[in-house]
What does this fold into?
Amino acid sequence: MSAARGLNENGKKRKGIAIWLKKHKKLCILSVVLLIVAVAVGVIGIRANQAMKALEREANRPDTAKVERRTLVESVSATGTFQAAYESNITSEVTNTTIQGVYVKLGDKVSAGDVICVLDTTELEEDLKDARKELADSEEDSREDMERAQKQLDDAAQTRDDSIADLDEDIDDAWQNWKAAESDRMDLENRLAQAESQMQQLKDSRPDDYMSSPSYSSLNEQILSLPGQISTAQRAEERAKNSYESAVADRDSRLKRINDSYQDAVENYDAAVERNADASKRERERVAELEEQIANCTVRTPISGIVTDLSAYLWNDYNGGSLAVVKNTDTLRVEADIDEYDVNKIKVGQEVVIRSNATGDVELTGTVSSVSPAASGSESAGSSGGSIGGFDLGALDGMSSSGLGGGSSDDVSYPIIIDVPVPGTEVRVGMTAKLSIILSKQENVLSVPFDAVSEDEDGSLFIEEITGKDKEGEYITRKVTVTKGVESDYYVEISGSKVKEGMEIIVPKAESKSIFDLMQESGAAGGM
It folds into this structure.
């Protein structure tokens, strides 16, 4: 009975379930569908989670590189502007006149010496005519004055020569007179001595009657008269000697008077020369000034180049200022500013690699020709970060140190000039120049990416050499101690006893990223 009753109850239950399922058919179908979906979602979720973990692991896998030989260049980057190496702002010293001719147009290519424009010279020509007449009159007066002064000097010279000749002749005459008087005295003394000698011979030959000799009377007369004549001759000789000695003694004073008189004439002549030179100097300077002004009315360019600005217009009044600007673009220069932290690295003569939007990948070569010793500072708000929608991004940097009120900093820089001898036809004045100033260059050195070198706890530097992979595919590495050398923008020279060319190394990521970081980055790029 109990078994039958049980079967009956089970039958009732199955029947009741069937009735319930029949009444709730849609609900049952929906429940089954939901159950199937739940199972499917669970399976997909597990697989998606596994894929996401694999993606995260792959995204955080470090990059690898090899130790390779490269040429490394250490440089300082800057941005500048192409400028003409030579330019001339052409003006004229002549003002208050009219422009009578213009011989160039804006953009014309001109050579040094070409005429830019011509100014009116009518008034200057009239002034020059008057000035030349004044100069001619002054020079004629000067000529006549100089002729008189020259004649007076010539006469003084002749008088001097004649006076000196007369002076020497007077001295010679006095000498001759002295010697003649001396000769006369000596002749009388000889005659007296001879007469006395003959008288003595006569006495010796005729001691008793020498007075009766025919020659006695003549000899006696000479012996008696000659002493008086000799005395007279001695006085005459003394006077002649005194006259000669006086003439000789007086010669220097007479010669001084003669020369002084001539020197007065020389000084008068020199004064006339100076007087007449000064008299015509003003007129000559005036003529030269007017001639120069007239020449300056033909305005020429001192350099070759392109006419980049033209302010000269036909028949306009000219009262000073620029008439034209000519810039020589055969050679250019780049003007740039270098940050104070880098300026001490920059030296005159350093090579510079230059690019511009106009030249694309073509590189120009320049040389640093000038480094300013003085800074050109400009105070700006915060950092130069651009703007979005009118909002100054530089203010964000200021907030970090100065709060929401912002802040300001002094950007100190130093102007430099780079000569570009062969700029090419594509480059024009005013274009932007991207500069790489070469500080040093090392060729064929072992190098790795900059981020591959890490610092150990003891301060030493190392790279991680890849020696293999584990079961999960992760890199197995070992540290290799290195020393850094020249650094470029991306690579750095390394050396060490265990460093070998071709070694595969780890380049660590800057930071690891979770799947959520990757999803955010992907979403920012347009969604996953």
